[in-house]
Amino acid sequence: MATTEQPSSAMETTEHVPVDDGSMQQVEAATEKKEEMSMLKKIADKTGILGDFRHLNFKDPFLMKEKNSRWWREVRAGTVTFLTMAYILPVNANLLGIAIPYKKDLVIATAAAGCIPSLGGCWGWAATHLGVTGDFSHLNLSDPFWMRRKGSGWWTEIRAGCVTFLTMAYVMPVNAQIMSDAMGKENIEDLVIATAAVSCIASILGGLMSNFPFGLAPGMGANAYFTFTVVLTYGMPWQDALTAVFFSGCFFLILSVLGLRTLLVKILPRGVQVAMGAGIGIFLCFIGLQSSQGMGIVVDNPATLVTLNTPLTVDSNYDASKMWLSVAVLILTATMLAIKVPGAPLVGILFGTIVAWSECWAKKDDSAFNYPVGACNPAQNATLLEDAGCFCYAPTKVAEAAQIENTAGVFQWNAVYDGGFWVAVFTFLYTDILDSSGTFFAVAKRAGYVDKYGNLPKGNANMAYVSDAVATMVGSALGTSTVTTYIESSAGVVDGGRTGLTAVTVGLWFALAIPFAPLLSKIPPLASGPILSIVGGLMMKNIENFEWSDVEEALPAFACLVMIPLTYNIAYGIIAGTMMWIIMQVLLMPYRAFKKQDPLVKFKLLLGPDEETLKSFQDASIGHGSEREADWLTHVTGKPKEVIEQAHQAHDSLKDK
Questions:
Q1: CA pair distance 143, 137, nearest whole angstrom
Q2: Could you give the CA distance from residue 179 to residue 408 in angstroms, rounded to a whole number?
């Protein structure tokens, strides 16, 4: 019998395959991965470090059938064991109470100390199935950040990090301007330093932990909610609001560690998920157009609520000079974005800032760019201008040693007793999760991290979420709102960034910007406001693939979309869209039952559909597009699109018969 000659080396294995750089990299990557897994398996077998978690399953939980036991028997035995051990609660408290005079607290601590280790076995299952433990294999010396495996190099990654920073740098003055409306204009320099510092920490931490090329910084939607809803509308002190941000970061960290953040995203109706980002975009644009925070084009009106700031001529309206310069910044930035100029928002800010500073230095009190809008007049003398609080943005120094004086470490723990505090906490949490999830997926897909089922690598993704949560906690301690991944990271990906070194580079640039806080804090609203409006416009991309002909999803989505800017409240928009969807689905239950359809099909879709739900979905949907439907189900279930389409075809053929 003829035998096949085996190749003697890895190189001989690839003799009959056309050899190019890509194939060689794949061979090297596969070999390295195999060696790593082999080594890890040997270590695991010898040490038992991975444990045995076969008992954590749904078919035979805790292997009760295998052990010839039953639920009631196990629960009864656990109860008996507890009764024989319960004496430890008072005895331990009394013994320790000799030294620690807090017996009630000691009883609680003893109970918690007994509960937590008893439930500890669940951690192993989470670590194995949810990617909790992360993947830090990229932190090695042979191929740092897996650059060779990703087909990248040092220069490419560093250059991509520079591009990402240039597209994100506007966040320092813009975030400081927004949050200073709630925290006081006197704290704007502190806010610039806090923004740069937390962006530095978050980006470096994210790059090292997840190996994703993401830049992180305080989110634009979250800072607007912090300022205009929580503080200015609800009247919550900004110190309490920062405490709420800290708690949202803690919850986000717990959800990330347990791998549960995906569940929270799914329980919102899909239309609300899509519309929320666009609604926040309109909200940001509206803020950028207003007088206090940006271009001064929109002002209040007692009859129509808002109106155009007329007249538009410089000689008839003192504020027209600021308005026209801000329009020039807007058009210039939009044009540069159209031709894909790296760092276009930053260039627009620099243009408006240099013009405003130059004019202020030249004319001083006679400046045409005095603020606040509507309070100043060139006919006023210096005394009247000062009495009116008029000033123009112009720095008196370039750099100094960074120091946060008023916004760091101001947590107010007594705020936890206020119900409105927890509403703010969970709204911050939801916006952070949804913003991060959407951005992670969009940027990671472009970077090639998403598999054919639309899933991110569990270990890398969870570590990205963990770094986001930790950065939010750090940011709240320094004085800024929730941190999120920036969609501008895609600029660095387009430039070739594929690994965490890109994110580390972004963080280092933010670190270099910290000493220049005196300069950055004097960016005028006429330069930052247009960028805020442009960012809001770009967020409309969230609804580009939404099926607006599906009334069940479209009208709740529209309610969320319009209620966010019209109520000046992100939470109200989310609540409006979600409640409208729930009420509509409840009212549709009798109709679906009459049609012999599953009345709960849409609710089941939110919680993760099974095969039966997939088959009934097509009949139960009122007005939908099959292509959009298949795309959505692919996203929700993680199943291949082909499988979902085949299930629908099979269901249709059965109906026809």
A1: 10
A2: 14
Q: What is the pLDDT of residues 521-566, one digit of tens each?
A: 788 888 888 887 888 888 787 787 778 888 888 999 999 999 988 8
The pairing of strands 298-301 and 305-308 is: antiparallel
DSSP 3-state assignment of 216? strand
Q: What is the mean pLDDT of residues 163-182?
A: 83
Query: How many Cβ atoms from other residues are within 10 Å of residue 296's Cβ?
Result: 25
CB 428 within 8 A of CB 570: no
- Coil, strand or helix: which one is 311? coil
Among 277, 217, 238, smallest CA distance to 510 is for 217
Rounded Cα distance between 336 and 344, Å, is: 6
Output the CA torsion sign for 267, 269, 274, 278. negative
- Which of 149-158, 446-455, 467-476, 634-643 bottoms out in mean pLDDT, i.e. has the lowest? 634-643
3-state secondary structure of 483: strand
Q: How many Cβ atoms from other residues are within 10 Å of residue 552's Cβ?
A: 19
Q: Give the model's pLDDT for residue 635.
A: 47
Which tens digit of pLDDT belongs to each residue from 301-314? 888 888 888 878 77
Query: Using an 8 Å Cβ cutoff, are 501 and 490 in contact?
Result: no
CA dihedral sign of residues 446, 221, 251, 635: negative
- What's the pLDDT score for residue 430? 78
Here the tokens at position 394 are: 């112009």
* CB contact at 8 A, 269 and 577: yes
Question: Which residues lie below 8 Å from residue 418, measured CB to CB, with a gap of 6+?
Answer: 236, 240
Q: What is the pLDDT of residue 107?
A: 56
Residue 624 identity: H
**Cα-Cα end-to-end distance for the chain:** 54
pLDDT at residue 245, rounded to an integer = 93
Do strands 483-485 and 305-308 pair parallel, antiparallel, or not at all (unpaired)?
A: unpaired
- Judge whether 483 and 198 are in contact, CB under 8 Å: yes
Using N-to-C axis directions, what is the helix angle for 458-478 and 188-210, rounded to 10°?
A: 160
CA distances from 548 to 274, 555, 557, 635 (A): 11, 8, 9, 18
Distances (CA, A) of 179 to 281, 310, 459: 17, 28, 34
Task: Evaluate whether 468 touches 484 at the Cβ level (below 8 Å).
Answer: yes
* Furthest C-alpha separation in the chain: 107
Output the six-digit token pair for 402.
Answer: 């960074």
Distance CA 202, CA 199 (A): 5
d(CA 538, CA 184) in angstroms, rounded, equals: 29
Euclidean distance between CA atoms 529 and 288, whole angstroms: 4
Highest mean pLDDT among 236-240, 290-294, 295-299, 573-577: 236-240
Q: Provide the mean pLDDT of the chain.
A: 75
- The Cα 292–Cα 309 span in angstroms is 13
pLDDT of residue 195: 93
- Inform me whether the pLDDT recorded for 240 exceeds 70: yes
The reported pLDDT for the residue numbered 35 is 60
Locus of tokens 């739900």: 613
On the question of pLDDT at 345 being above 90, the answer is no
